[in-house]
Design a protein that fits this description.
Elements (H helix, E strand, L loop, with lengths): L1 E16 L2 H6 L4 H9 L2 E11 L3 E6 L1 H11 L11 E3 L2 E3 L8 E3 L2 H13 L7 H4 L4 H4 L3 H13 L17 E5 L6 H12 L7 E7 L1 H6 L7 H10 L8 E10 L1
Parallel strand pairs: 7-8, 8-9
Antiparallel strand pairs: 1-2, 1-9, 2-3, 4-5, 6-7
């Protein structure tokens, strides 16, 4: 049986990898906004867990933590929910991806336009680009209007739509699942680390009481930090690793 209780999340531990603190300082007010959002009041599901050789104990449902954290960060300006990267383009439908992201939407539009209709383009790109509205999370009419407006800014066919990227790209994960998922998450980061790439990565896992009250063999702050440190030779992205705990509200 499970029951919901009010808690307040707290950042109990944190580390910065690959000059993460320097990059974070350059993105003011992201740090303040993220800290305020993560340390919010939430309602999570408590449940009785039974482990062989350990007996029954009070635990927390990890899914409810993830749901509440996604809700809490919605107050951050320009933040997006589930985001996957395909061919260097950020989408929000059709595939599992990062739990959240912040990126330059106009630059992303230029990327998708150039992929389908730019100098290289793809076969039948002039029709296929109009089929991407669901993956972009917009209606057909709105998407067609957006594509046509970009075309008006390009002088001829097969010409790149060139604009400057105005701010750094951020992606992040809330991970309270099986410990092996840390490797899947890092592979996703490496796979996305192409133009325009991920400029800053935020990884949130449990520590303290919260770690003890979710299932055994799950990702936690210490395990995540160890794996990231061990793979610093291939992971070049600046990272903020956050150990989240809680107090009873």
């Amino acid at each position: 049986m499970s029951n919901k209780r009010n808690v307040k999340f707290v950042i109990a531990e944190e580390s910065f990898i690959n000059n993460g603190k320097i990059i974070l300082n350059s993105m003011y007010p992201l740090e303040d906004n993220m800290r305020a959002a993560l340390c919010g009041n939430a309602q999570v599901s408590f449940k009785t867990r039974r482990v062989k050789g350990k007996g029954a104990y009070q635990g927390i449902d990890a899914k409810s933590i993830n749901t509440e954290l996604r809700r809490l960060i919605k107050v951050i300006a320009d933040i997006n929910g589930e985001t996957h990267v395909e061919d260097g383009i950020f989408y929000h439908k059709g595939m599992e991806g990062f739990d959240f992201s912040i990126y330059d939407k106009e630059y992303n539009l230029a990327r998708i336009y150039n992929y389908y209709l730019g100098a290289k383009g793809i076969l039948n790109g002039d029709s296929k680009i109009y089929e991407q509205n669901k993956k972009m999370g917009v209606g057909k009419r709105e998407w067609k209007k957006t594509v046509d407006e970009i075309r008006c800014n390009v002088s001829d066919t097969n010409i790149e739509y060139v604009i400057e990227k105005k701010h750094l790209t951020v992606a992040g994960e809330f991970q309270f699942g099986n410990w092996a998922l840390i490797y899947r998450d890092l592979f996703r980061l490496l796979n996305a680390d192409d133009n325009p790439g991920i400029d800053f990565y935020i990884y949130v896992a449990a520590t303290g009481k919260l770690k003890e009250m979710i299932s055994d063999n799950t990702v936690n702050y210490a395990k995540a930090l160890k794996v990231i440190e061990e793979n610093k030779n291939i992971i070049k992205t600046p990272i903020w690793v956050i150990g989240l705990d809680f107090d009873y509200a």
